[in-house]
Amino acid sequence: SSELTQDPAVSVALGQTVRITCQGDTLRTYYASWYQQKPGQAPILVIYDKNSRPSGIPDRFSGASSGNTASLTITGAQAEDEADYYCNSRDSSDSHVIFGGGTKLTVL
Amino acid sequence: QLQLQESGPGLVKPSETLSLTCSVSGGSISSRHHYWGWIRQPPGKGLEWIGSIFYTGSTYYNPSLKGRVAISIDTSKNQFSLTLRSVTAADTAVYYCVRVGRSGTSDWFDPWGQGILVTVSS
């Protein structure tokens, strides 16, 4: 079955740039979307359809895709960006959805 | 502004049926541009897609739920619902209802309800 793999944890110094990745064979066909989840809160969408940002999401968040890897880049990470980040994609059935296991981002 | 709100019992006994409803406000559930869905998150774990439904009643379900799941929609009430049969402790999770955006190459979930914790225990 299809799956998406994320690094469990990533850290970044305040103000620096960090890239969070999501790997899976389905990403050769489908684009990833990305979610930010802070403790005790529902996830919020930060990037969709490869590199579109919903209104209200800062432009320091961007998405990209190459081969079997999708990435979320935060340029100039802020303290409030510390959170869990999840990717999702459609699976090979073209109708089902899968999530990555999540990446815990720490801003130092 | 579109808002979603989950409702239902917070405690379900093993082998029984979990039933949740999502009430949508600030927009129509009969939109031809969106699906509606359910996602869950066991305590301390990641996100799992449960399924999605279109206003016509067309559905897609996570095959891992092995036929235990059903999602329905009531356009007259602007609500959609989740039913999960034969629950076990492994179904204990926060359940979120979401609006689903779809293109030819991706699915995205926005916005999310606040979530409701459902515990399966006797």
List key phrases describing it.
heterodimer; A: 10 strands; globular; B: mainly beta; 7-stranded mixed beta sheet; 4-stranded antiparallel beta sheet; 11 strands; 0% helix
How would you explain this protein's 3D organization?
The complex is a heterodimer of chains A (108) and B (122). Chain A is built from no helices and ten strands. By secondary structure, chain A is mainly beta. In chain A, the strands form two sheets. In chain A, strands 2, 4, 5, 8, 9 and 10 form a six-stranded mixed sheet that branches. A four-stranded antiparallel sheet of chain A has the order 1-3-7-6, with no helix packed on it. In chain A, a hairpin with a 2-residue loop joins β6 and β7. Chain A is globular, with a radius of gyration of 13 Å. Chain B is an all-beta fold and 122 residues long. Helix content of chain B is 0%, strand content 53%. In chain B, strands 2, 4, 5, 6, 9, 10 and 11 form a seven-stranded mixed sheet that branches. In chain B, β5 and β6 (59-61) form a beta hairpin. Chain B is globular and about 40 Å long.
Compute the gyration radius of chain A: what is it?
A: 13 Å
Shape of chain B: globular
Share of helix among residues of chain A? under 10%
End-to-end Cα distance of chain A? 37 Å
Largest interface: chains, residues each: A-B, 26 and 23 residues
Average pLDDT level of chain B: 96
Largest sheet of chain B: 7 strands, mixed
Shape of chain A: globular
- SSE order of chain B in H/E notation? EEEEEEEEEEE
Low-confidence stretches of chain B: none
Strands of chain A, count: 10
Largest sheet of chain A: 6 strands, mixed
Tell me the number of helical segments of chain B per DSSP (H or I, 4 or more residues long): 0
Helicity range of chain B: under 10%
Helix tally of chain A equals 0
